[in-house]
Protein 1
Amino acid sequence: DTGVSQDPRHKITKRGQNVTFRCDPISEHNRLYWYRQTLGQGPEFLTYFQNEAQLEKSRLLSDRFSAERPKGSFSTLEIQRTEQGDSAMYLCASSQGRGNEQFFGPGTRLTVL
Amino acid sequence: AQSVAQPEDQVNVAEGNPLTVKCTYSVSGNPYLFWYVQYPNRGLQFLLKYITGDNLVKGSYGFEAEFNKSQTSFHLKKPSALVSDSALYFCAVRDIWDSGAGSYQLTFGKGTKLSVIP
């Protein structure tokens, strides 16, 4: 499978715990994005990397959220001290080129109890 | 700032009839426009895009969309609906400035649930 992959697919955690998600983009894509989707809403942009550089961050990305893409390949999204409001589907996407579409992974569904 | 509106939460259409899912947008510069489809428990799948050129763009599974700059719209269409087209459809926009620079983030609408009735 050469699409975008995300791990884990589901995560259940208790409030206050830290969680980390991983995204592996399509191999030749230099741009990687994180979005968050809640029930009944469209995806909302969180952050974007070009190679290893984090170039855009949404105001939605509070200081409890951090994302990395250390070698310009896979990326991790960490949420510290999770809150119930963090419960959502976290989507990763990748793209190559200026006008090209973003390809999305299956998402990681986070449930904070 | 960029935004997208999908005025219909749900669209119902009989199988074999034409379908339209509406989308309007707002950008500061020029729009790159996209349609995605989401099936239950599956990720977003790309359908089609408008970057420049012909206002009518064709995409996957027989879908097409018409870019209308004066009405700031990008409605999704299909001449003959299939039951398998039933899904959640999202319109998305990127804002591209006259310099050619712009944000890479996509702004999505809230989605429109399409139900095709046999």
Protein 2
Amino acid sequence: GAVVSQHPSWVICKSGTSVKIECRSLDFQATTMFWYRQFPKQSLMLMATSNEGSKATYEQGVEKDKFLINHASLTLSTLTVTSAHPEDSSFYICSARDRVTEAFFGQGTRLTVV
Amino acid sequence: GQNIDQPTEMTATEGAIVQINCTYQTSGFNGLFWYQQHAGEAPTFLSYNVLDGLEEKGRFSSFLSRSKGYSYLLLKELQMKDSASYLCASMDSNYQLIWGAGTKLIIKP
């Protein structure tokens, strides 16, 4: 199947700093990428849908000024958590679709804000 | 509203068969996905059903009944490595995935 690479796998940052997470589709062009957040023992929660060359569409309750998404090319989308706080600690996962029938996920990024 | 229901947790014995059920209600329907997720890792794709019936793929099979809004994932010859969460997701008319909370499957020797 298609490969989606997410980096970093884990990151620890101080409260108030910003963290950037990258998501790359390695062997296909992804016009649409999705960013999810998952808290322990809970389901994936869609944060936003990222479309190449246009503004991301955020789900209700997700602060777009806090979670900055950039999708500058067909193979790269980035999520920046700005002014991170301990409550932002979570597992962040990106997903890209090469066609309707399958969605491929990055490895996920475990963010810990101290 | 949109809703996906699946059991929270199931326990099965190594070598046995287990069936994980999923019922869905979504605005439109463009297919039903099953994913496997080990603790601390991202989900991995298992199956996709858009037509009624059973799709078999090795030890894993997935069934769909669109009229009943029902799907199940069948795992045969269970192995310890199958211990994971299994996520059911329905794709709605906007091609958005609506996720269930996942079923934690515990395999005992």
